[in-house]
Batch of 2 targets.
Target 1
Amino acid sequence: MPVRKKLLGIGIDLVSWDQIRDFLKRHRKSAVERLLNPSEKISYKKTSRPLEFFARCFSAKEAYFKTRNNFWMAEEDFRRVRLLEEGRNRFRMTDASRRNLHIEGRFFKTPTGVGARVFLWEKQGI
Amino acid sequence: MSDPQLLEKVRECLSGALGIEPEEVKPESSLVRDLGAESIDFIDILFRLEKTFDIKIPSGELFPANLLNEEGMVENGCLTPRGLSVLRERMPYLGLEEFEKDPQLSRLSEQFKVQMILNYLRERVVKGAPSSAS
């Protein structure tokens, strides 16, 4: 039976490669430790493109936070939310504190960086 | 540490994080509206402050999160009296007098000013107050 969904919000975030590069240059250890969840940390350490990986994680999570009218989220919020890439720039996210949500989005490229667009849905009838 | 010394160090942190001249950082400057801070800049600022002042800023203590997710805090795009009360309680370093006259949620980010950071650090560093997590 298809799950009914109600659109709660849309969020967008952009980051530039220069921003992320400079940020990781100064705070790599703290950023990875405090902003990525355990599975993302493993992926970050394995990937051959850590800058892109981190930029995508960050922009996707920020875009999700913006769907909830939050302009700032605490570290544990960053770590609680998990990004699951599905190929072709599509992704889902899970938020352990809000299991009634369906979070999906797409990455897009800009001339100087990457952005994420997130749709936040509430599953209904669950 | 004196107030001028505190301001000098905060200026260094913010100018480095935001790519601006230190002179542009004034106590009354809004991080978002005046200094152009974006999402990642807030985290950069937090990490720089921790390194500069050799403190750990517990999650949500300087830039509190999830403030307005609770029911009854926001109505028709404005903070309710309850929302304002919670904001005052959880962000004691934030000056809200001007914001309370027109508490539109869209204006809240403008209230995050350099003075807020100075107020917080004055308590933690100058007066030696422990963090709320300790």
Target 2
Amino acid sequence: MTSAPDAAAGAPGPAAAPASLSHPVIIGVQRLSPRVLLFWGVPWAILTLLVALGVGAVGLAADWATITIIVSVLFALGVGGLATVVLPRLRYRRWSYCVTDDRLELSHGVVVRVESSVPHFRVQHIDLRQGPLQRLAGVVDLQISTASAASDATLPGVEPERAEQIRALVLSRAEADDAV
Amino acid sequence: MTPSDPAEPPAVSHPPLIPAAPTAADGAAPRRLHGLSPVLDVFPVARQALLPLVVLAWSFEGLGLGILVVVAALFVGYRALAWSRFSYAVVDGTLRIEHGIVQRHVREVPVTRIQQVDLRRQLRHRVAGVVAVRIDTAGGGSGAEVVLDCLSDAAALALRAELLDPRHRTEPVAAPGSLPVPVTHPPGPYADGGWMPPPPPPPGGVGFGWPGPPPGGAVPGAPAPGLYPGAGPGFPGAVPPVTGTVAGQVLARLSTRDLVISGITGSGLLAGLSIVGFVFLVLGELPDAAAEEVGGRVAALFGTVLVVAVALIVALPVFLAVAAGASILRDHGFTLVRYGNDLHVQRGLLDQREATLALHRIQAVWVLDNPVRRRLGLVSVQLQSAGSGSDVAGQVATTTIPLVRRSDLATVLAAVLPSIADPVGMPADLSDAAGPASLAHAGVSNQADVSDGSDPGAGGGLADVPDTALAAGPFAGLPVRLAAAPAAARRRSVVRFVAPVPMVALLLGLVTRSPWAALVVLLAVPAGALGLARFRALAHGITSGTVVARSGALIHRTALVPVARTQSHRVESSPFQRRLGLATLTIQVAGRGRTVALVDLYDHRCRVVGDHALGSAEARRDELAVRRRTLGLLERSAISTG
């Protein structure tokens, strides 16, 4: 049984269940931990500051009027600030995952939407990673590897308990053989 | 245990869990590499260090030669020391290799973990009469491959026989009371079913040392070749099989003429370009005055336009000759034979290789052709495997059959991809939620594909195709019916090719500031034609065990992926695709090879095919087998302990 195709491009709320959901669901459609919003904005903030500095430097070097420099720097800061606040939220809204009886399904992407599907049986190993930002926010990255170098199964910010739960679940079903 | 007691398991003599200690005849004593190994090791190093060495010799005038000799002698001495510390042996079902001068390394590889053993003879090996053996293990990482660079013929063949011996294939099982599961290894290519060759034929017969046919033709009493179920009638090329062997199916045997055609029509033409590049490089290195003088003289003789024309006319046969030569060098004597579940490949003129590839390691099969080959009815087939082991870092290994006739393609594919011989079965729900009604069933809906020799009336649904109609479909001789891309994808393909043209023209105009740059816009016409060609080539199809996808504008690449090998899939859509209801499905297979992409399909179709690739019974065959075996072992141990 297959559900309706996910044709709506701008569905609000958690993304609609992936259409290939034909197996018993163990962990229903979930979002990432909201704590990722604490640090997903950091690269954008840094970029904003750099651009503002750059604009200021260009203005000073090209000898613009002071008011022009101030306005352009403020404009850069404003646009950057907006991006820092809005874009991570947008990205967060688009991120969702779901664990069924036989596979892990991820759905993410703002402009280019990606839905990945990784069967538990094919999982070779699972890594939990936690950088300094993640440690501060109290989340972990869950990286799932199959025998393919191109498999994309990374959950970039889940609660540690949930990560352990997923890891135990997947590894108990991952009996991938040598027969690659 | 009496036969009348039903509760007791039947009396079975269990083979020992660990094979008995091998006798001296098994070669348990550690052996060294061939004595010439230190000398032969010089050559690959010398090839890399050639330029600095030549410069060194040049700069020191008379002493240069002496220095070279001293360096070479030192290197040979060092390698001789390494050689004396290197030993290998097959002991107790493991391959044990010891090496190292200062630090001692010992590696033990269980023979059951060895996936394949390849033999290779480069020029230096041929001159010295030795063979290089490459052993692929199922381990991962950098230690997955063992290379024994110099072994005598006899030693190499004995080692291969030892490593691929069925005796060693019994897996020791830890649980007490349970039967070891014998892993049957298919017979080797020789008459007694082993991997050691029969005694050599009388002199004047076999060239190159391959186990080839004796000079007198067929050996009387040799078993007739067997046909495997699903194979088509007759062998490609209709040549007699390699005699003195057990039944094997010859999938491809290329003559020199075949190789010349392959070189001329294939991508080997690019080899000629490298020559041109080299000539320009040399010319560039000449001091300016000399180059000008040469150029001036040539131009004075002929005038520039004529020079260019003559150069082109002269260059073309040179290109073709170089391409043909490269093809012959690489693939001379190409033979691909299937023995049971192994493929055996031999090829090479100066650098001879003999490799085996287990069928279950083939991750994807690619069928390639280009406009010239399409006209001639030829394709080439690439078998993509995961390389050594199940580790992701393993190399991609591709076995290429340089030339296959389209009429033989179905036979070759059926032998290499057993899953494709299954009757075409489509999941019931392959209807499109949106889109033209002609795509209600997956069928040929694109009339413009006449260039493939398709019959335009072959529309209709895959559901209509009776099981026996697996003979050449309308798509390039494949035994599978393919569905064309939805019409909405046509505009995308054309736009993708045409859109960059005005931008390039604009850039060019800005850079050169000349109005002639506007003429670049005329390129939009051939670009559009390319886009249309790409759209026409987009096709996909599924059988119960395979997913097929074709793409490419001029060079058509058809990928056939056995669903039992798919690792994961991904459905991606850009905003442009979403607007049209399209998406792209990529299927990942083991290793680092190319992923298979079904581009611009309807979103729903993507999910259905993806689900089929991962969730169908065929796709989960490995998983179910493992589960069954685990359950069986658990039950047996429960019985024996309970």
